[in-house]
Amino acid sequence: MSSTTESPSNYNDLQHMSVSELLTNINKEDQTVPQAVEKVIPNIEALVVQVVNKMSAGGRLFYIGAGTSGRLGVVDASEIPPTYGLPHGHVVGVIAGGDGAIRKSVEHAEDDPDQAWKDLKEFNISSQDVLIGIAASGRTPYVIGGLAKANEEGLVTGCITCNASSQLAETAQFPIEVVVGPEFVTGSTRMKAGTAQKLVLNMISTAVMIQLGHVQGNKMVDMQLSNEKLVDRAVRMVMEETGVNREKAETLVASQGSVRRAIDHHNNEDA
User: Fold this and answer.
1) Residues designated as active site
2) Does pTM top 0.70 for this prediction?
3) Sequence-separated (6 or more) residues with CB below 8 Å from residue 189
4) Predicted confidence band of residue 164 (pLDDT cuts 50, 70, 90)
5) CA distance 185 to 204
């Protein structure tokens, strides 16, 4: 297996570049990432369909990863309840080393191929669920071991990696290989590889939530109204969808507690 994520940077003598040169060249590298993602949209689609089918039947979506990859999975999972109104626990991010590893590196946490399944069992994971492993290199033992055990237990498995023909991709039933090439700083996979993983995670979770009915038109009608900014956004959504004035929209949102219920209540009143 060739590891493009560990290949030498396309640039050298970085320490001699001006700030402007550094930023310009980093940006040039970053612009190649969406192009790499575009090439694997069919693979992303195949996995999304599986997730939608499982979650429609009451299953859950799990992410596992180590380091930056694990943190990205945790971030994506944590955004689902406030954005789409699903209860916590329907999309779960698990990181090697536990929640403490979100803030600080936990040495050797990613090296145990058996630990991921132990971590996942704490959530009573089952064949109803989907497991997506995230690893830029495609060779992280924690992630590979977790997916291998999930396959044995009858789960649907997918992965997001940034090297071609990796062991992780061979283990996953629905692999996504976004080959972004060398990093600006050689081997620093929190850069282009991390960006690619974030883009793919955005695509997966957003497409799944839309398919599950948590968006109407283009609006997050099930979002949690947890602060003034979101309440204001909800009021504006209700105004746009129903044509009522702001005062009426504020009353609807306050009484119904969500954009969806506010719109439905207004429509039922007019029926």
Assistant:
1) 79, 110
2) yes
3) 5, 68, 136, 137, 162, 183
4) very high
5) 28
